[in-house]
Amino acid sequence: MASPAPIPARTGRTAGLRARLTVPVLAYCGILMAVMQTVVVPLLPDLPRLTGASAGAVSWMVTAALLSGAVLTPVLGRAGDMYGKRRVLLVSFSLMAVGSVICALTSDIGVLIAARTLQGAASSVVPLSISILRDELPPERRGSAVALMSSTVGIGAALGLPAAAVVVQYANWHVMFWVTAALGATGVALIRRAVPESPVRAPGRFDVTGALGLAAGLISLLLAVSQGGQWGWGSPRIVGLFLTAVLVLGLWWWHQLRAEQPLVDLRLVSRPRVGLSHVAALLTGFAFYANSLVTAQLVQAPEASGYGLGLSIVQTGLCLLPGGITMLLFSPLSARISEARGPRITLALGAAVIAAGYALRVVDSRDLWMIMVGATVVATGTTLAYSALPSLILRAVPPGQTAAANGFNVLMRTIGQATSSAAVAAVLVHHTGLADGVPVPTLHGYLLAFGIAGAVALAACAVALTIPGDAGPDGTRSVRGRTRSVGEGALEGA
Asked: Which helix (H) or strand (E) holds 476?
């Protein structure tokens, strides 16, 4: 890998209005990206009627964005390190806005799926923004800004569901996409105005072979995981996809180890501090995703089920809203804990809090107030964990690889979320009863899903505690704003 350009002094660059707007503008972009991912959820039951397509075809409105986001996030992260993070951020956000315009103009399911594929490029917003914050902000502001940026994923998801539900209920469904298109165009203008281009680059030749191999392997893997419940886990298509994923990703790994300028520096990933952080991201993504996924289904279940509350989509979104507000409020606390004890302790604490939240869900998932308390506790733990993950990566990789490394970390979260969705679906399908003659999941099925998610959260906590102490890529450790060498002794929280 080519050596990155050094970071010059930021005195002039970060002064003035632009410096004050950089963090809120990037946070706005992260929230809007998460909103974009969730706005189609309230539409899914009605899209077959609105588009004349089958329910299976309509489900690709979600799957297409998931797949393109998973593939493009590490690719665009590497491109950002090479060609400029602000430039690539503008491209990804522009693609999201263009996708929204296309969705607003059509009811053809094929065109809608293609537009959602474009929107998936926005998944790279968070790792690119975190890398920009590392390059642009002084150390005393960096921790809280990175924590806020990480939390935007949950904040946007919590805001997007009720907002989209209101639009769907009281306006034409195309209006929702016009709104996201306008917000996306505003984001592009704000990026151009307030976000500086980082001079930190890792120049070299882009690994096209690595990008294509990663794309083919990830598409095969995530397609098998996301469609296994519908196509049958033992069907030839699913088995073939899994075998293809193993073969292609194995060849991709071999290529990356031998490439002079690889898309993903696997030697860096193999270091315990980086590799274990990616494993923790995978497990945390699994544990986090079950919260909103299962909660939404549970509270909307009919009262005839014996446990369901029969809430509307709008009411369901409002139940999840406190979790989003909590994520916004707790992100500064996460930064303070990471500064005092180290991000691995924050990650372990967050995973433990997630497990505690699921324990509450298992104890009582009948009363609305307890459901909201349990969901909010899980959201609080997610804030701590998600805020700590990029801090771990930033401390463990060179400045010229931050966007690519954080992109790979986000990819691991995405794989965890996709696996969580498949696992939850499998559990609920195997625990189904009848309510007024309609098949619905049983309460036992929901509690089992909560138990599995809680156990995975505990596994994430254990992995976090095995991550080596907070040494930087240059062999130093940072505590309370000071830097000292690894040989100077054990650190607090290390």
From this structure: strand 476-479
